[in-house]
Structures are given as C-alpha cells and as structure tokens.
Amino acid sequence: MELLTDATSIYIASECSIVIVLCWLVGGALLLRKGQAQMQKWRSLEENATDSGYLKRKEEQYERLYYRMSRNPEMSVPKELIEEMQHLV
Fold first, then answer.
1. Confidence bin at 47 (pLDDT 50/70/90)
2. What's the rounded Cα separation, in Å, for the pair 13 and 2?
C-alpha cells in the first residue's frame, strides 16, 4: 500500500486486478467447457459399450485394422480410435 501513493498508481493497480479476475474467470469457463465436452464423450462411449450391434461392428473394424497393420507395421492409427478401443476393452 505504500507504493500506491498517487491516483495513477491506484488506477493501474485496479486495472491489473480487473484483468487478473477476468483471466481467472475465462480460464474457469474454458475448464468447465472442456470438462463438459469430456463428459459428453464418455457418455456416448458408455452408450455404445452397451449396444451389442455397435460392439460387433467395432470388433470387425478392429480385426480389419489389425490385419492391415500386420501387413504394414508402419501404419499410423488415429488417436481417437486408440482411446475408443481402450475404453471399450
């Protein structure tokens, strides 16, 4: 408080405080949005995990992918597919 002796320094400190609070609120909103998206993703994966027809199609897809990868070991696998496989297993 000893540094805030004139009106200009008080205004600068107030503006900095407002910017910090706004950044904190925006960061929190982004964190909540990311959490909501993750929950929706997990919910859809859980719904798919209880659908036997979907699981059968995925099993066939993974078998085809396994055979293609066995023929071409340098083939890349999409990250989303790996995450889905891990969740369904």
1. confident
2. 13
In this structure, what token pair is assigned to residue 11? 């205004």
Instruction: Record the tokens describing residue 71, joined without a space.
Output: 């023929």
Any idea where the domains of the chain sit in the sequence? Answer: 1-50, 51-89
Cα distance between residue 41 and residue 30, in whole Å: 17
| Residues near 54 by beta carbon (within 8 Å), at least 6 away in sequence | 48
- Torsion sign, CA atoms 18, 22, 23, 25: positive
CA distances from 56 to 1, 2, 65 (A): 68, 71, 14
Calpha distance 26→21 (Å, rounded): 9
This prediction's pTM = 0.54
Alpha-carbon dihedral of residues 64, 66, 70, 71, nearest 10 degrees?
A: 20
